[in-house]
Fold these 4 entries.
Entry 1:
Amino acid sequence: MDKNFDGQPRRKSVLGAILNMSGPWGSGGDNGGGGGNGGGPRNPWGSGTGGIPSGGGKGASSLEELFKKGTGGGFKGGLPKRPGGRPWWPILLIGFIILWFALTSIHRVSPQERGVITFLGSYSRTLQPGLHFSLPSPLEQMTKLDVEEIRTIDIPEGETEKLILTGDQNIVDLAYSVRWNIKAPELFLFQIAEPEETIREVAEAAMRASVANFTLDDTIGSERTEIEQQVEQNMQQLLDDYGAGVVIRGIAIKKADPPAAVNDAFKAVSAAQQTAQTYLNEARAYAQQLTAQAQGESAAFDKVYEEYRLAPRVTRQRMYYETMERVLSKVDKTIVEPRGVTPYLALPELRKRSQQPSVTTVEGK
């Protein structure tokens, strides 16, 4: 027995003990403890009293037998061999290939979608709604796009201001939205790197170009619909030139106000303009009234003239009588006819005198 430097028996190292063991718990030859094989550890599951018996008088445990089966050759890779000793991996490989083909080669396209097929990264074709087949990935890959969904871009985002210069050198704060959807999926995917950002920038450029043709009052007032139509047309033309593959469905101006810094002053100016417009409307109404009256008098004169052309003498006499009646009806006069005619009684004058109060004079004594 080896001894250490102080004369005591040298203990075997843990590695030596493990190498001398025939199982995970050492040799099962000595179940009495401390004996055989150089004093190895006692097997708790040996063939001694209370143990599990094993063949040949050795205490190999069930765990050791399972370990030997797993590493010795009963099965490899964790699976038992097929009948005849053939391995399972060919069948597993075939099953994986079939599953891979099924998942990457069979495609179902919904009615509102279109499928874009690429072959080794290059555009190949566009699939219509229905069930389709393609080469497995990575040879061919499909990207589905919803071509009926109406997408919306709000400009500006949040509550920030979007200041635009008008045609009369004023500034207006505009907030609007753009509605669009996909027309050509292959162009939408491959022609432009960032389609949505491109649509946003094109909308801003088209809006600035259109507002520059209108005044501030027109922009915030009655011409908003015209501006929306111009922006939609300009955007569609520019995006078609880019080959973006999208359709602009409409522009909606949600806010058109002066900048917040001058909003109060602008309201005062607007109120003054509305007052001036009211006065102008009243003047126009009065002018139209006078014009209608003059036209009526002119029409009446034309009728008189027609009668005068037919009978000048009678018409002159009648006009004289009508004029004198209209003039003298407003004058308090007494007309005396020639001799032999009863004088005109001034009845209105007598009536006035009778209505005056009488004055009584009392003389002093």
Entry 2:
Amino acid sequence: MAPADDLLRNAHQSLPEGGLAKKLEVAAKEGRQLRVKLGLDPTAPDIHLGHTVVLQKLREFQDLGHRVVLIVGDYTARVGDPSGRSSTRPVLSGEQIDANAETYRRQAFTVLRDDPELLEVRRNGEWLDMPAADLFALARVATVAQILERDDFAKRFAARQPISVLETLYPLLQGYDSVAIASDVELGGTDQTFNLLLGRDVQRAYGQPEQVILTMPILPGIDGTEKMSKSLGNHVGVTEPADEQFGKTMRLPDDAMDAWFSLLSLPDPGTDASPRDRKRALARGVVARFHGDDAARAAEQRFDALFVSHAVPDDVESFPLSPAPGEAVHLPALIAEAFGRSRSDARRLLEQGGVKLDGEVVASDAYDLPASELDGRVLQVGKRHFRRLVAGPSAA
């Protein structure tokens, strides 16, 4: 298979058509690497499996000897990418962005090769902290009508929802990233198509050869419908514990497994296997990628102990019981403190039978219990969260 055909595997679209093959051919003749760009805005502290779809494609470019330029958008994060948004993104502090940026850089190495010949990590604050005259020149590249053609802007404009002037600058700033690092190829999700194409316009305006764009399908979250997103709570983080990764993957609807196997490039036992066996293979594959084969096998064993045999884990964290003398323990308050939930959420869990003591469901109206009935017992909330209750001012 030709290198271009191999790189297009699983991709949604490459524009212009045939452009990637031409870029590869020219680079080979000139004896140079392609510069392959990906920008990530550190708007959240963790990378999830959805990010790795594009990161894995970047790794394929690295494996062919090309140079990946990972741009951590510390400046564009201050603007907020409007892609797929029905409202303006909340503004993050500079401290939050800097902390998230460092986490992104570190977690990207779970997929990318940390080789200075094959990887360049930059922050776009290096060049976007520009004089006003340079910003004005960049703003002249596109028209207001062109920017408002974006699907998300068009919908918000039609619905009379606010669009800030700053947001309209975002695609131009992302496009200038391509100029600053002389991008040959830029990758992104399908929701980034407008931004990536505008990057070609910006490069042309600055006298540079235009980049080829390569868009990747968007990985559905563990709900099987919405795109994977931490804000939607349907994500699997790349640094989450093995048990969390395995358990979350096992919640994936059967009809989303094909997309996960394909986009994550994980070994698929095939449709001849039962949905149960395929999902277990998928969960093992996810855990093995980030924690190793031994951790994947151990996570599956613990999953079976919890959800098949309904056993209590051996390494349950202790939590102190310290009521005043003669007072009962208010269970919603205990749940809220022990598991970091709200009291209203704790009451809802009780009412729905989602709270257990030593494996037995707690009555929905059992809000107050004597400490003597709780001392030494294991409190369980949901399927995977446990605390061993210990009387006294501190856990033994």
Entry 3:
Amino acid sequence: MGGQIKVEPLNVVFGARVSGVKLSSISDTDFEELYQAWLEYGLLICEAQFLSHCEQIEFARRFGELEFELAALSNVLEDGKLRCDDGSDDVMNILKGNMDWHHDSTYMPIQAKGAVFSAEIVPSEGGETGFADMRAAYSALDPKIQKKLMGLRAYHSLHYSQKKLGYASQSLKGKGINDDGDLDGYGFHDGPVSIRPLVKEHPETGCPNLIIGRHAYNVIGLSEKESSELLEYLKVFSCRPPRVYHHQWQPGDTVVWDNRRLMHQATPWPTDQARVMWHSRIAGDPETESALYD
């Protein structure tokens, strides 16, 4: 790439570390190079950026309209105390649910395009974020399985995925991102359940990608048992080396991922330690990312 930007591919089949640029003051020319690298690699890791909230929002807007500007994925309350980790805290239940592999907003009317995610406070151990390349996963499948998947569709629901883990979502109805920036009930809507294909062509690269993850269930045309077995097989097959990367965060790190291509997951950390992350979600194009319905 030209200019001062340096892109170093990770030692997996996707992703790259980016250096030589300050995201808060990136030029239009450098951003275009960055965007093309994002499409090529799916995940960009930019260390020691230390973006302010306003800077993160403005940078995220360079990728398109935002589904939401900024939300805290955090176990720290406004008064500085830590959230209870005993199953009684709705936000902690969401954070734990996110430890299973997923795409963002497949349960919404429009699936997200991507996300900008940054670290403010990180624990002394654990708390990595994992990413899995669903383009590479589809390409690695046996052609007979690829053929079987074409035309299959599944339901996607956050109510379903949280209930499956034993976390009730009824108390979260009607809520969204609260005054503290918490994702407090976001996605627990009462509208129609989204339906999405198991294989979807990326609108900008033209490459086929698996769209599966924890929110997906009841593949249409299959029995409940067949559906569960297929979705579990695809997840296990997809989320193994060299198609996965787990990022160990340092304060100030910022990453950008392509949600149309990658799944991701949180990982456990000692919840008697603070972890504060900031998420800006890039909205999908309604022409290409809208859900199907019955």
Entry 4:
Amino acid sequence: MKIAMIGTGYVGLVSGVCFSDFGHDVVCVDKDPGKIDKLRNGEVPIYEPGLDALLDRNVKAGRLSFSTDLAEAVKGADAVFIAVGTPTRRGDGHADLSYVFAAAEEIATALDGYTVVVTKSTVPVGTNRQVRQVIRKTNPQADFDVASNPEFLREGAAIDDFMRPDRVVVGVQSDRAREVMEQIYRPLYLRHFPIVVTDLESAEMIKYAANAFLATKITFINEIAALCERVGADVKEVARGVGLDGRIGPKFLHAGPGFGGSCFPKDTRALARIGQDHSVPLRIVESVIEVNEHVKRRMVEKLEDLCDGSFNGRTVAVLGVTFKPNTDDMREAPALTIVPALVGGGAKVRVVDPQGRKEGEALLPGVKWVENPYQAAKGAHLLVVLTEWNEFRALDLKRLARKMARPRLADLRNIYDPRDAKKAGFEAYVGVGRG
């Protein structure tokens, strides 16, 4: 199959590279010539484990290329995927679809023979029908179908998610489009991965509902964590006991400083707005959004208490600022609430993150970036674990405690045992939900 992937952001680039590894002929298109030049030189603009090697392999095999010429890429394509950004629109919480519709209009002018135009971007219910209208209006003679194919890629594990998915969701309106999508995903069909073929609206809703449910699980356990602190329970034990119920499961039951990233905050806000627009208020989703912001502020209060009520004049070492490990993504990260509060309160903040500095330098002014946790801890009054990178899971706690002016640990990911911290010489340990 010949595929054009419009957009080389996180979703577009990972999807394009993986489709080429399925054996398809893929052209990834972007308007940014600088980004395309880097990709042609084998430079991957995002951090995703294994992506650079997979990209290099498929470029050398002649299945993957990069271009700024959308019309040439679309010409003769069996499927054109729209994988552009849908950020939250300022002021009203809706997803901004301007990039999607602009891409659809440009695709329409270049269509050559029957083509399936597939929306990979996360879009509100009804968007694919609007895409169809845009294409039909721009090119009344076009022979095409639209399809919805939402992505379910976890940053840091995206390649495995693409190659061994829990499910693939495809929304179509015709058998012809279904056949094209089945050919595209044939390697997964042959290995019996679940392929959910449904209508356009259901496919669009599946994506939002899935992300909202996962965000709800995170927020639920964070509220339980707050209660555990008051009653003397340990949320890690509570989550383990709850997660062993097969109807619930253990995933996304890890208490912490709140969810962030490119999907959950944006998608919960968009889903809440969709509900309001259709007079079906989604009270649970609205509460999830509100509580998640409160969780981040509660973390600041925890740190302030550990600093005897004031950050002023304190040195604070922060381990990890990306929204999760194995990514360089800072979007909506809890660090963007917590670190500015430290700096604004007068603290001297040192930051360590294996991949976060590239974005973090612009987003977190006033901090000092250092190479390792032991540098960060020297003379510090507080050590904060904010992102659970593997590099931070087995630190020499005794060495850290000896280097600190006041050995106090805020373990906001609950990766250490409080008893081990005490034995290592920390005078205070605070986790999340560990009463």
